[in-house]
Amino acid sequence: xxxxxxxxxxxxxxxxxxxTGATSGIGRATALExxxxxxxxxxxxxxxxxxxxxxxLCDRLGGKAIAVVIDVTEPQAMAQLAKDACxxxxxxxxxxxxxxxxxxxxxxxxxxxxHNQVIKTNLLGYINGAHAAMTHFKKQKRGIxxxxxxxxxxVALPYSVSYTASKFGLRGYSxxxxxxxxxxxxxxICDVFPGFVDTPGPSHAANYTxxxxxxxxxxxPTYRVAHTVVSLAQHPRNSVTLGSAAYVARxxxxxxxxxxxxxxAQFMKLYLKNAEPAxxxxxxxxxxxxxxxxISGGYSSKKMSNKKVVRAAGIASIIAVTLYVIKxxx
Length: 330
Known about the structure:
The chain is an alpha/beta fold. The chain has a single domain, classed as NAD(P)-binding Rossmann-like Domain (Rossmann fold). It is 48% helix and 13% strand. The protein has a 7-stranded parallel beta sheet, with helices on both faces. A two-stranded parallel ribbon has the order 5-8. Helix 2 links the parallel strand 2 and strand 3. Helix 1 packs across helix 7 and helix 8 crosses helix 9.
């Protein structure tokens, strides 16, 4: 521990914060939450009209915001975004990587260019952001990088090969960068690993399953993820896992990867067999859909009650522990 870590946190209203993917879901909720604290916000995404709307909302809540239209897959544009943030706020204090996309379907039915774009957005986009931010963090000797990952960074999701690859890659890039910055106590790398979140993400995903996509309950409320990000901007931690399902999945992966892999495959097969039909689409992989830019995906109303969540998590934990014991005895 160093003396630096005992210094009181700088008030959020004095911080300049970059948020990618700021027009919907977690990014939108996070921007509005920071605005309530009076933060200086640089909101980045691909849709200018929605970004302008977000700037107005953030300003009304007490923040001070600007919009930057950007594609996170372009390194030079991300470097310029960091410079714009410094010019706007006088420093670059927090960078939040949120922008991401998904693609669901059997591996070979999804066009290879879609797989490539998912990796470019979800993994290289985050690396582009980190590279841009770190240049300024090192000069300042301080800064907080927050990466929105997923439980998919620990547990492989069948029918989501490129998405899973990007999330596993995100976890590796964060771990490597964190180790590299071991002697820089003022710079923090924070990872957030939620389970399924109540966002419009399924409506934006490329869908080659022919079935309507919905997250499995219990979903994590979007505001809870946003609160976590704001908390990390004040009191950084290496890693935060959100949601009972995420904890159970991570524990199952630790105890028996093969069983967890089999269970997730069976779950997906059963879901796809019974789900409603839907049209094949590339979603927002290449261009924004210009729809569903709200915070919530509307799935919270379908989630289980708190008692059922606790009961389900408890049963799953008992099963996981039993399997672990059986494994040890064999």
